[in-house]
Amino acid sequence: METPTTTKLYALCSLLLAFLFPISNSVQLDGGKLCLPEKQTSLFIFGDSIFDAGNNNYINVTNGFQANFEPYGETFFKYPTGRFSDGRLISDFIAEYAKLPLITPYLHPGYHSYIDGANFASAGAGALVETLQGSVIDLTTQLSVFKNLTSLFRKKLGDAETKTFLGRAVYLIDIGSNDYSIPFTTNSSMLQSISQQEFVDMVIGNLTIVIKEIYKEGGRKFGFLSLPPLGCVPFTRALKPGNTGACFEEITALAKLHNAAFLKVLQTLERQLNGFRYSIADVYTAFSERINNPSKYGFKEGKTACCGSGPYRGILSCGGKRANQQVAKLMWSGTSNITTSYNLKALFEL
Fold it and tell me: What pTM did the predictor assign?
C-alpha cells in the first residue's frame, strides 16, 4: 500500500486514480476489521467549485482554479482553505445540518479517515472529460477515486457491512456549469457542430453514467442542485460582448435545457433502479430571485460579485458566495415547491 506521501502524487489527463489511504487508527478496529458507529450516515461529495473544499490545492493547476489565497476564507476559517468562498460552502452547511464534521477534501495529505464521507469535488470540473481536460479532476475521475475507496471499505468492513454503509450514505453532486460556460470562454467550436440539445444530452449522459456507477457500488440516496441562470452570474456577464450588463442568454439557455432534461432523467432512474431516491433543489429560481431582488434576501447587490476584478467583478481573482447558507437551508428543509422528490433532511433520515 502506498504511504500518505506517495499517494498524493497525482496524474491528471483523466487517468484513473488509485489512492488507497489507510483508515485512521483512531477508528475502532475489531479483529482487523473496521467497526462502524450504529446507523452511520456519511456524505460523499462530487462536483466543481460549488463543492470543492480544497482538492485543487493538491494538484498542478493554474491559479485560476485554486482558491488558496486571500480573501478566500476570511469570514469563517480566517485563512484560505481552497474553498471558492469567503466562508463555508453549501456542502459544509449540509454536513453541519446532518451533524457531521466538515467533509475534508480527499486529497488533503493529513486526511486518512472516511467514515464520515469524502469530498472529491474539483473547481473547474465538468461532466465531460474534455472540459478543462488536464487541468482539473473531471467527474469521471472523481468516480474512479470513489470506486478505489469503496474497494478499501470492502477490505476493512466486508461486503455486507460495506453495502449497508454505502446504502445509508448521501451522495451530493453538482456538475455542469463549467461544461456549458467554458465553450464561450475558450472560443470552442463544439456548439458549431452540434445542437444545444445534443450538447446537453452529452453532459447529462456522462452524469447519468456516474450516478448509475455509484448506484452499482451501493449508493441509493442522491442530492443535486439544478443549474443556476448561468448567463446572469458576474463571471459570464463579464464575458458578454459589448459589456452591456445584460445576461449571456446563450449560456442561460443551456442551463434551462439541462434542468428540464435532468429532472426527467432522475424521474426515470427512480422508476428503474430499486431503492434509488433523490433530492434536487430549484437553485435556478433561488438564484434568479436573489439576483433580481437582492435586498429581499439580505444582500445589497445581486448582479456584481462581492470582490474580483473587471466588469461586475466577474474576473475570478477572489471570491465569496455569501448565499451559500441560504441555498443549503433550501436544500436541507425546502418544501415540495423547492425540492423534488425529497429534501436532504428527509434523505438523511431514510
Answer: 0.84
What Å distances lie between residue 197 and 125, 194, 204, 209, 248, CA to CA?
21, 8, 10, 18, 18
C-alpha–C-alpha distance, residues 75 and 90, integer Å: 15
CA nearest neighbour of 44 among 283, 211, 159, 206: 211
Cell of 10: 497525482
| pLDDT reported for residue 345 | 97
Query: Are 65 and 298 contacting, i.e. CB atoms less than 8 angstroms apart?
Result: no
Q: What confidence score (pLDDT) does residue 110 get?
A: 82
Encode pLDDT of 147-178 as tens digits: 999 999 999 889 999 999 999 999 999 999 99
Residue type (1 letter), 103? I
| Structure letter (DSSP) for residue 16 | P
Q: Which residues contact 178 (CB under 8 A, 6 or more apart)?
A: 48, 124, 125, 126, 131, 132
Nearest to 138 by CA among 84, 237, 209, 189: 209
Q: Do residues 170 and 44 make contact, with C-beta atoms less than 8 angstroms apart? A: yes
pLDDT digits (tens, 9 = 90+) for 277-301: 999 999 999 988 888 888 888 876 5
Closest CA to 123 of 90, 92, 94, 82: 82
The answer, yes or no, to whether residue 16 has pLDDT greater than 50, is: no
Nearest residue to 237 (alpha-carbon basis) of 224, 250, 227: 250
Query: Which residues are 46's β-sheet partners?
Result: 173
Q: What are phi and psi of 320, to 5 degrees?
A: 175, 140
Q: Is residue 83 pLDDT above 50, yes or no?
A: yes
Cα–Cα distance between 119 and 247 in angstroms, integer?
32
Distance CA 93, CA 116 (A): 14
**Burial bucket for residue 299 (CB in 10 Å: 0-12, 13-18, 19+):** middle
Q: What cell numbers appear for 175 in the block?
A: 456538475
Q: Compute the Cα dihedral for 108, 41, 100, 211 and give only its sign.
A: positive
